[in-house]
Structures are given as C-alpha cells and as structure tokens.
Specification:
12 helices, 3-stranded antiparallel beta sheet, BirA Bifunctional Protein, domain 2, binds 3,4-dihydroxyphenylalanine, 2 domains, alpha+beta
C-alpha cells in the first residue's frame, strides 16, 4: 500500500507540475482530491482496515492530501504570475517615446488683426458695434450722403441683390463698406459715443490687393466738442500700438468722401528697402485709411442734432494693415484656404492680443480723447 501511495504521490506531483492553466489544475484537483478522487477513495478504504494499518496509513494519506493541496496552490500562484508577466509583456509602453504629431489649426491673420484692433481701441475707450452684411440702399448710400445719381456709387463696384419682383422697393446690396454701421448705431443710441465696427465688406474687384470680400473697421466718435485734433491723436496712438513703434509719423492728405467734411486720407511713413516694406521709418508714404469730420447731413439722417453734436469717423482696411504688419504680399492668398499658407501666416491659439501683450502697451497709457 505504501508503494502505491508513493507512486500516486509521484504521479500527482508530476501532473500538477506540468499543468498548463488553471482549468487543468482544477481537473487534477478533482482527479486526486474530489469525492471520487484517487486519494479520497484510498481514505475511504481505511474504514475496512485493521486498527494497526489505520494508524499507520492514516497519517500517510493525510500527508499526501496536504502535499497535493499545497502543490496545487503553489502551481496556481505560479500560473497566475506567468499570465501577469505575459500580459505585461504585451501591454508594455515606452513612456520615453515622443508623442504622435497633432495637427493644430491656426488663427487666421484677419481674425488675429481684428482682435488686435479691438484690443487697442477698447483700451482707448471705444466699444464694438456691428451691422448686417446685406444692407439696404439707404444705409449703404443715401444716409451717408451718397444720393442715387452720385458718382461715388459707381466707384464702389457694388454687388446688388435681386429684389422681389414687382416690388417698388430699392434692391439690397452687399455692403460696400462698414460706414452704414455709423448710421445704424447713431439711430438707436444716445450720443455721445465712441465705437468701432469691424466686419466683412464686398466689392466686385480682384487683383493682388483686392478681393471681392474683404474686411474693414469703421471708427466713430461723436460728442459736443470733438475735433480733427482728436482724430489725429487717436490714429497716432492706434498706429503706435498696432505697429509696435515708439513713434509714428502720419500724413493727413486732403481728400473727399461724401460722408465727411473735411475729409482726409491718412498715410503712414515707411521705407521700401530691397522690395521689403518697413513701417515707421524712411521717406515714403503709404495710405492706410480714409477719415474726416462726420458730415452734418449724415448726423441728421441718423437723427442726431448737428447743431449740438459733431465728431470724427474713419474707415480702415483690416486685411491691408495685416499685410503691412505681417508682410503678406498678395491679398488673394488670404482666402484660398491653402493649409501651407495658413500654417505659415496663422497664429497660435495662445497668442491672444490684449492689454498684457505688447501690442497695446502704448494705447493704455491714456484713455482720454
Ligand atoms: N467708407 C470708406 C471706404 O470704404 C472709408 C471711409 C472714409 C470711412 C472716410 C469713413 C470716413 O468713416 O470718414 O472707402
């Protein structure tokens, strides 16, 4: 019997050692220690034995049962460790690897420059006003002192929008400038005011410096005692802040706009060296905007008493000053959606223009006009 037991033990331990996984191990437990397992059967046979044999074989069988149990638990632990090791091998990550490249978009120069312009003018006490891009004849022309027969209507290369058939109402237009926002703002707000109105405008024109859709920013300051001197100071402060210069020289050139009297086009001093434009130095001049004192007829058309109030207005091309500041040679590429161009000239999302970025430092020194 003892031979049989030691053979059984050898066989059991060997098979347990060779088990491939936990389910095989469970099968072996049943084969040896289950109700009808070989060890259990042997234990049951103790009942028919003499007391002497019982006393001899009992402890041997108990020890066998314990040995098998122990080697099963050891094997179980070993199998678990093996499977964890294998999983870790498969799931291993090299945390020192560089991360995958992510394609970030960029802020379009027009958006960036618009934000810069808004930041500078708001530090000067101006707020932002808006108007519709589809505009009526009245706001785009008549109220701005451009009657139907006025030659300035031809200069604008207007896009007309077909009106309703049989309607005697004048057709709408895609606004040709941001000036109509002046009228809309004065009509529905109490004076005095200081506003800018940035936005899209449309003209049928296409070459290196013109696109059918472009951007302007309108400025309007109305009060009882505003003069051209205030206009000059505001524009100088704006240019210093925008072009990040200590000093700028502006030239006010007498001009004509139906909606201002007197009117002036404003040039900024610049140089052209090797075909490269530098703003703020040299002996050349570059036109950057149109401006003037708001015509009394425009004030009256907006319901403002021109014997009590007066003020200045200006209109500036946002795309144009973006080209000047950031050196893009062709306006058309602004709107081509070429990713290479957008990545080259676009701005990072964290490059937010504001009172704490360099651009408006000069402008925040004073907020009085
Ligand atoms: N609206 C003019 C244009 O588009 C620009 C302009 C000139 C606006 C003089 C003004 C101004 O407010 O006073 O060409």
């Amino acid at each position: 019997m003892t031979d049989e037991i030691s053979k059984l033990k050898g066989d059991a331990l060997l098979r347990i050692r060779d088990a491939q996984d936990e389910s095989q191990l469970e099968e072996l437990r049943i084969v040896f220690l289950g109700k009808k397992g070989s060890v259990s059967l042997k234990m049951r046979s103790l009942g028919k034995m003499s007391n002497d044999d019982k006393a001899k074989l009992g402890p041997v069988l108990n020890a066998l049962k314990n040995d098998i149990n122990q080697s099963i638990s050891e094997k179980k632990r070993e199998l678990r460790k093996q499977s964890i090791d294998e999983r870790l091998k498969g799931e291993w990550i090299d945390v020192t690897q560089p991360s995958k490249e992510r394609k970030w978009g960029t802020i379009h120069p027009v958006s960036q420059v618009t934000d810069e312009v808004v930041a500078i003018f708001s530090s000067l006490g101006f707020s932002v006003a808006e108007g519709p891009q589809i505009e009526s004849d009245w706001y785009n022309f008549d109220a701005l002192n451009i009657p139907p027969e006025h030659p300035a209507r031809q200069e604008f290369d207007t896009f007309y929008i077909a009106g309703e058939q049989k309607s005697d109402r004048a057709s709408n237009v895609l606004r040709t400038h941001t000036s109509p926002v002046q009228i809309r703002y004065m009509e529905s707000n109490q004076m005095p005011c200081r506003i800018i109105a940035p936005g899209r405008v449309y003209r049928s024109d296409y070459d290196q410096t013109h696109t059918p859709m472009f951007h302007q920013v309108e400025g309007l300051a109305i009060d009882k005692n505003i003069t051209m001197a205030n206009l000059k100071w505001v524009l100088e402060e704006f240019c210093k802040a925008f072009f990040e210069l200590e000093k700028v020289e502006l030239r006010f050139r007498s001009s004509h706009f139906p909606f201002t009297e007197p009117s002036a086009e404003v040039d900024i001093k610049c140089s052209w060296d090797d075909g490269k434009l530098k703003v703020g130095e040299g002996s050349d001049w570059l036109e950057i905007l149109g401006s003037g004192m708001v015509h009394p007829k425009v004030l009256e058309a907006s319901g403002v008493d021109s014997t009590e109030y007066q003020g200045f207005a200006f209109g500036m091309g946002i795309d144009r000053i973006a080209m000047l500041k950031y050196g893009m040679p062709d306006l058309r590429s602004f709107f081509d959606n070429d990713l290479r161009w957008l990545h080259h000239y676009g701005f990072s999302t964290i490059d937010v223009p504001g009172l704490h970025s360099g651009i408006s430092e000069t402008a925040i020194k004073s907020t009085e006009i």
